[in-house]
Amino acid sequence: MLESAELYFNADHGYLEGLVRGFKAGLLTQQDYINLVQCETLEDLKIHLQTTDYGNFLANQPNPLTASIIDTEMRKKLCREFEYFRNHSLEPLSTFLTYMKCSYMIDNVILLMNGALQKKSVKEILVKCHPLGRFTEMEAVNIAETPSDLFHAILVETPLAPFFQDCMSENTLDELNIEILRNKLYKSYIEAFYKFCKNHGDVTAEIMCPILEFEADRRAFIITLNSFGTELSKEDRETLYPTCGKLYPEGLRLLAQAEDFEQMKSVADHYGVYKPLFEAIGDGSGGKTLEDVFYEREVQMNVLAFNRQFHYGVFYAYTKLKEQEMRNVVWIAECISQRHRTKINSYIPIL
Amino acid sequence: MGSLFRSETMCLAQLFLQSGTAYECLSALGEKGLVQFRDLNQNVSSFQRKFVGEVKRCEELERILAYLVQEINRANIPLPEGETSPLAPPLKQVLEMQEQLQKLEVELREVTKNKEKLRKNLLELIEYTHMLRVTKTFVKRNVEFEPTYEEFPPLESDSLLDCSCMQRLGAKLGFVSGLINQGKVEAFEKMLWRVCKGYTIVTYAELDEPLEDPETGQVIKWYVFLISFWGEQIGHKVKKICDCYHCHVYPYPNTAEERREIQEGLNTRIQDLYTVLHKTEDYLRQVLCKAAESVYSRVIQVKKMKAIYHMLNMCSFDVTNKCLIAEVWCPQAELHELRRALEEGSRESGATIPSFMNTIPTKETPPTLIRTNKFTEGFQNIVDAYGVGSYREVNPALFTIITFPFLFAVMFGDLGHGFVMFLFALLLVLNEDHPRLSQSQEIIRMFFNGRYILLLMGLFSVYTGLIYNDCFSKSVNLFGSGWNVSAMYSSSHSAAEQKKMVLWNDSVVRHNRVLQLDPSVPGVFRGPYPLGIDPIWNLATNRLTFLNSFKMKMSVILGIIHMTFGVILGIFNHLHFRKKFNIYLVSVPELLFMLCMFGYLIFMIVYKWLVYSAETSRVAPSILIEFINMFLFPASETSGLYTGQEHVQRLLLVITALSVPVLFLGKPLFLWWLHNGRSCFGVSRSGYTLVRKDSEEEVSLLGRQDIEEGNNQMEDGRREVTCEEFNFGEILMTQVIHSIEYCLGCISNTASYLRLWALSLAHAQLSDVLWAMLMRVGLRVDTIYGVFLLLPVMALFAVLTIFILLIMEGLSAFLHAIRLHWVEFQNKFYIGAGTKFVPFSFRLLSSKFTDNVA
Q: Which family does the entry's similarity section mention (chain A) (predicted)?
């Protein structure tokens, strides 16, 4: 990028950046969480959320309230905000936002294909799809029988098309293949996104690259963890790892050879960033899970992204933080509705 | 009613509301708007409060009402807005009302649902007929364009030559037809092509009339399409794609006969549906009309109810849980009103034990209440925008009523412009009851709210315009000028006089471009003009020099008077808050500092005006030099203004110099001495010495505080008593900063008042330029053309006068007047650290539907 990028940043994206920073200030605070945890019923939760930036977003919902209604409404709210950003953005921010959308689109496509495999109706699955990743062609996904079919017939005109280059095969789509397809798509997506941020340069690269590196490594760990005890071969497993993280290349090769959790942990021990994370995992009951630890680290990175100005990372960070917040609220809501109060405090605090 | 000089005395009252009557009592209080509630449950989160269930119920009612209003608006039924506002509903009626509303909602939802269903049905049928009509032409056309079919490899082209052949192939040939959203056509066709690899034919045509989308209710353009395909497999795919693009698919009739039958069937069904729909709509309208009658009062009632419960949430329960305790701020003068309201509330609910109240002493600062009317409101707003006054301090708004328009007018002084402004404000004032004005847009509303300020500003501008003798930059000769030109001619004087003075003769008049009138020639200056500036100055070339000198001196004089007045108001504050020492140690040195320097300057100006006449003006000393010399003690003696001037000036300077250390150190040292004195004598000796040492007020104040503290401990222990710690360093710092600010401020603020001169000069010059550029040009042209030219020139002149001179210049003068009040005047005495008294009053609730729907 030219040196003058920062000069024009405010003219092009200043409004949206201001907006997103304002939205970030509206995230639930520690005090809010303390109050939420004290709620007895979901009605109380609703009343408390009314005093926050959520406002009366549940006002027109008929009783009784459920956690899933809260979830959908919160998602809708986030989606409204995101669409507003996207509709008012200029290049290259709009490309950046499209990239952000892609991950949700991949999830939706996979969700729909799984649904088709289990012979569920499209309408039923559509409700579960994330509104951020919604696109018109999505509903026709179940026509396709092989990945290349899927590409040629349906997704060729969507932003997802470029990520298909690695996964064109004629295999029929069974459950394992769908999972492989998802991971391959995600791999090429995250690599493309990484490349985009890197090429953009400037503060955006400085902020976004570490976040995406972490995201890639997290996926590598999770894939490894999930592949234990499945028929996935080690070579196949290695092809699924995104190659833009800090683990690339030695770490990934070692991970590919890992056979249980302990071996995975010893791989992580070579990296200063991941060692403390793995050490923070509690054993057995009560402690934190690997997922929680990763979420906490992600939140931390996203919060730090707001410390710098003139970059697009704030949009990514805000969306991720909001997602985390939604997960927290839904968690608390679930705990309240199931009267399972012992675990109510294990949400991920947003600093 | 309370005075505008100080805010009203407040007292903290405790209301003991019997739990059965609390609602009625608060309803009565809300109607009157007497008291401000204090939140006693600040650390309780909103959902844990006592009346949260009731608030929730109110919200539910609001939701239903919002739905009703939305439906009524959609049906275009006028909503009557009642004039009177109904009381909050009695508790017994609330349940009834809730039931009624819920029943109404259920009914309404059902009817609307039915209606929507019918509409959707109807829409589908209409779409079907449209589709049939359009696709009929497709088949015909397909026959005409044979080559389309030749592209299909598995079929011989000749077998498809006519319609009958197609029927023979019917087993293999499938049709899907329907309607698709205009925007999706292209993507739809592309995907069809990609998925079915060309084994389909798509024909489509735009529908000539737009139809409503049954899902979103928008009216959009549609396309009718017909897909013909071969084979079951592809058929499935095509159907899925149609689903994906939300097409409305309808069965496609294979024969012409079938088509006709369907068409006929459809037509009759559409007719039936129309009648049913019509009846449903009629019924819905009836229901809505009935609901619309009461909906306004219901909305207000629910709002009031919700407000009452919010206030009840601020109260705390007593130990026995039998009554609610509320703490309220109430103006002292209205305590009996408060009592009456409580009685009324108790009576209404028919409670056996009445609710009662008692006042409790407190050390907390009460909120500030200054009652305003429509005239004083605008001025109070100017002051409040700077800061709401501290409790019981002198309210500058009272003086602002006169000084603000006056200072504005000094800058805006023009008879004509002022009169136009006055007329505009008068128009607003006379029509203030007009409903359109009070509900108008933001900018007009701003003018409307400041109409009385504008009125006074206009009036004062007329006055200063008369003083400046400016009317649209021209002077008005009302009384005849005091100068006589003919007296300057040599012929009108005797020969002896002619020698002494420079007089005019014919050659002088003929050859000089500029002539000078000499006031010392007898008969030339016949005494001052009765009001303001002599109109002859309008012709003079040295007019600006003359006016500048006059306006500059005037603005300094006005400024110093204004600031001195501010310091004097400070004395009233000290007297009221019983800090007499502040008068001697702060206000008096401040006054001396100001008056000995700048008061003396004013004296010199006025003295020079009075003492020197036209004859002696040549020997008059310059005030500027004299004033500078006052501080520099020059070695060379100049002839001063008066004898003994030097000594007077020395004396004044000494006083000024002495007042500075008093200002800096007086108050901190005194407080320190007071503090130490109290601590050494208070323990060892009796109170008698105390009385002798401290001023009487101080002791009486102390005594009162002691009593209050005792009361506090008895009545409620949770109220914190903040005992101020004596910190000498802090007091010294504050006083030093204040003093430095004041001393420097005296100089810079005086200079700041020169803006009066600058802006009035700018205004006069600008209007002069406008006249010279436009009107003079228009007036110079000879009569015949001039008439045609003058009309547009006049129009342009009027427009520019209004926009530049009235609005733009007026705004700038307004801003500067505000600044002079906020910065130069109010910082002499006004603290403005109070909080506004916001009573719990139903009148503050908005009575609009719009808020409610949004």
A: Belongs to the V-ATPase V0D/AC39 subunit family.
pTM confidence score: 0.71
Cβ of residue A139 closer than 8 Å to a chain B Cβ = yes
Q: How far apart are CA B672 and CA B670, in angstroms?
A: 5
Q: How sure is the predictor about B703, in pLDDT bands with cuts at 50, 70 and 90?
A: very low
Give the Å distances, CA to CA, from B80 to B69, B72, B289, B852: 11, 11, 11, 15
User: Residue type at B580?
Assistant: K
- Over residues B571-583, mean pLDDT: 90
Q: Across the interface, which of B46, B48, B244 has its CB nearest the CB of A137?
A: B244
Find out whether the peptide bond into B210 is cis, omega within 30 degrees of 0.
no
Residue B739 has pLDDT above 90, yes or no: yes
Percentage with pLDDT > 70 across chain A: 95
In B300-382 the beta strands, taken as DSSP E runs, fall at 316-317, 323-331, 356-360
Q: What are φ and ψ of residue B64, in 5° steps?
A: -65, -45
d(CA B235, CA A153): 15
Would an 8 Å CB–CB cutoff place B332 in contact with chain A?
no
CB of A145 within 8 Å of a chain B CB? The answer is no
- pLDDT value of position B412: 93
Q: Contacts from B94-99 at CB under 8 Å and sequence distance 24+?
A: B94/B57, B94/B305, B97/B61, B97/B298, B97/B301, B98/B57, B98/B60, B98/B61
Residue closest to A58 by CA, chosen among A68, A48, A73? A73
> How many A-B residue pairs are in contact by the CB < 8 A criterion?
53
> Chain B contacts of A152, Cβ < 8 Å?
194
Cβ within 8 Å, pair A142-B240 = yes
Share of chain B above pLDDT 90, in %: 25
Give strand pairing partners of B13.
Answer: B328, B359
| Cβ distance of B244 and A35 shorter than 8 Å | no
| Predicted local distance difference test score (pLDDT) of residue B636 | 58
Residues of B in contact with A122 (CB under 8 A): 243
pLDDT digits over A223-232, tens only? 888 888 787 7
For residue A247, the model assigns a pLDDT of: 83
Crossing angle of helices B415-430/B397-412, nearest 10°? 140
- Nearest beta carbon to residue B244 from set A39, A139, A152: A139
Rounded CA separation A205/A92 (Å): 13
The rounded distance, in Å, linking the Cα atoms of A238 and A183 is 11
Element (H, E) at B228: strand B222-230
Q: Find which of A58, A63, A139, A332 to mutate to test the B interface (most B CBs within 10 Å of its CB).
A: A139
Residue A68 amino acid letter:
S
Is residue B791 within a helix (H) or strand (E), and if so which, with residue range?
Answer: helix B783-800
Phi, psi of B143 (to 5 degrees): -65, -40
> What's residue A193's pLDDT?
92
Express as a percent the part of chain B with pLDDT over 70: 87
Look at residue B695 and tell me whether its pLDDT is greater than 60: no
